[in-house]
Write a sequence for this structure.
């Protein structure tokens, strides 16, 4: 891994190699369809593993594994309520990132569509 800092001129700051590694870790945590679905489901209210499994149609062991990954990178947090653990979004800035990515995906799809129309 390079030891020099990454300089993001647009953002006006430098990122150390350790910070770049953490950013990559967080992005990797989101590089799974089920984890994105879990995050979106938790946007409005906390849920238990069993609630998420039922609503999303994913097995409870799989939901638990995905939540552990999201928790490890600081995107969700867990709170025990009696015998049930409820998971909630810890870092709501994730939704700003989702909006940026969705906008980029839409723009790219529109550009591709326009390019195909021009080629015919």
């Amino acid at each position: 891994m390079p030891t020099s800092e990454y300089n993001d001129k647009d953002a006006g700051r430098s990122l150390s190699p350790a910070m770049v590694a953490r950013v990559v870790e967080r992005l990797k945590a989101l590089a799974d369809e089920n984890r994105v679905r879990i995050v979106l489901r938790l946007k409005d209210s906390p849920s238990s593993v069993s609630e998420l499994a039922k609503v999303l149609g994913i097995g409870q062991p799989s939901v638990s594994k995905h939540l552990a990954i999201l928790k490890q990178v600081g995107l969700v947090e867990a709170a025990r309520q009696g015998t049930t653990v409820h998971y909630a979004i810890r870092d709501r800035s994730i939704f700003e990132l989702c909006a940026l990515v969705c906008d980029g995906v839409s723009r790219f799809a529109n550009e591709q569509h326009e390019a195909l129309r021009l080629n015919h």
Summary: The chain has a mean pLDDT of 89. The domain at 32-91 is CATH 1.10.10.10 (Arc Repressor Mutant, subunit A). The longest strand covers residues 76-81. The radius of gyration is 18 Å.
